[in-house]
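Case study: Peptidase C1A papain C-terminal domain-containing protein.
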Amino acid sequence: MCDPEEYGACDSGCNGGLMTSAFEYTLKAGGLEKEKDYPYTGTDRGTCKFDKGKIVASVSNFSVVSIDEKQIAANLVKNGPLAIGINAVFMQTYIGKVSCPYICGKQLDHGVLLVGYGSASYAPI
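Here is what the predicted structure looks like once written out:
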């Protein structure tokens, strides 16, 4: 996906952005290509090589949900995985499986995919 750097855009290419902006751009562009067709290069300069003929997934709509944890859980159960913002300071010690953050913060600095919730035990993979 070619993250626009045009005047007034909310994102900053590889320097970060908002999930809502990514969804809006995906709607506008018509969809996404496979990663093998448009690999991540780690740079934010260069010509956009997006090929609409290789679109394999699209977004029909999206919505912003409440920050209330009970409503987030209800949305997760009803709609499936959610793109959420987190304070990633605790991710520096993350080693896999279920994340159990003990450090809370209100500064959201990373977008991640929320696939479950709770504190029940889990079976090792």
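For the exam, be able to explain this: The CA atoms of residues 62 and 112 lie 16 Å apart.
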